[in-house]
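FAQ: What does a ligand-bound record look like?

Like this one, built around zinc ion:
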Amino acid sequence: MRILIRNGTVVTSEGKQAADVLVDGERIVAVIARPGPDAGLTDQAAAALVAFGAEETIDATGKWVIPGAIDAHTHMELPFGGTYAKDTFESGSRAAAFGGTTTIVDFAVQPKERSLQEGLDTWMKKAEGNAVVDYGFHMIMSDVNPESLKEMDRIVDQGVPSFKLFTAYPGVFLSDDGRILRAMQQSGKNGGLILMHAENGPAIDVIAEDNFLAGKTDPYYHGVSRYAVFEAEATNRVIRLSEAAGVPVYIVHLSSRDALDQVRAARDRGSKTFAETCPQYLFLSLDDMGNGFEGAKFVCSPPLRPKEHQEDLWNGLIKDDLQVVATDHCPFDFHGQKDLGIGDFRKVPNGLPAVEDRVDLVHDGGVVGGRITPERWIEIVSTAPAKIFGLYPRKGTIAVGSDADIVVYDPNRDRTISAKTHHMDVDYSCYEGRVVKGASDVVMSRGTVIVKDGEFVGPRGHGRFLRRDRADWVRKN
Ligand code: URP
Ligand code: ZN
Ligand code: ZN
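The answer part, i.e. the structure of the complex:
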């Protein structure tokens, strides 16, 4: 299909320009600049367009034409906390598409005492034929041992060059420092990237137990028990381990100014340290965890922090100490899942829904809020994750030869976030009633329009597995 997107303003991380975009099949084949936002094409460009013979024209007058966003941290169907993250690859990726996200990178899990390959094969089966946007995988290493270390190389060769390890969740995912260092050394040999969940899990468990035994059983105490200093300590520790191994490291879901200080210090001394934060840490706070058991809607790890942390995180994004906003999308229904933790906050499944709302929230809080430019917004939600995770320039930009993952974005449309209208398969929204400025009008994935006029119009199972390149970009930047 040959599609012309005309009269819009193309916004990438590099700049803005009035331009028409031509798509042929799955790729962008031309970006034709116009002399100005209200100006028509030159005669020569107009003639080229006629020759192109578009079969469909999308009018983007007054709109931005942006690269499809990339959510580098999702958990569809994750078995966790005695239940499953509710969104399947089908429902979660459809919700992502509504929100302008055309690529997700989800986490395949190595089952305890089994191989990495078994985990990857399981997640491949969950996604294949179900996801409606393109998807890649990171690999969660639950069991670092000589076998799984060797296996890492074969996983990288299959286009899965990133591995998540944890200093949290003792008995479930936690790896000790020696195992983390071994995995880092291996990533130095195979070109992979280590992603760290950095919180001191054993220390958190002590405080959580103290609070529980003192009768503090509400979800609020989940937030209170997971001290920011435990995040900062673990963040510094894993960064130091990565320095010892001479490899880059990527800190996932960074939530606090204390942890950010560690990342900034590391970057200032020349470490190849990268970090993401998530919408929940920019827009929600410990205050949301009050109100009795309602607070369970906001239980995630690391937890929501006191409000004062939010502006520091925005500053981290402005100054590039934080490079990415991903969601850590991991939704559990309030009724039937979160309520596993009634009477004991330690049993509330950890995770929040967000895959549909990230792009608009960061636009609203960042661009409309006057904190970042539209170009920086694109960088944070699309281009940087593409570069860091080996997808650039196939994804993350509007350029000739790139996949035609394109969003026609209305920066002026008001949208009210609500569980009544969202497409995520979860019975509540953390942002219920919040009005955001900016919304996706048309969403295209590899040249196929998948969302238009508020409807999903794409084919079932349109998404494809993305074999990602080795983490060369983080080694050189
Ligand atoms: O609360 C969270 N973050 N749930 C998902 C699992 C993880 O640690 O990313
Ligand atoms: Zn995590
Ligand atoms: Zn996560």
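Follow-up question: can I read anything off the structure? Yes, for example: The mean pLDDT is 97.
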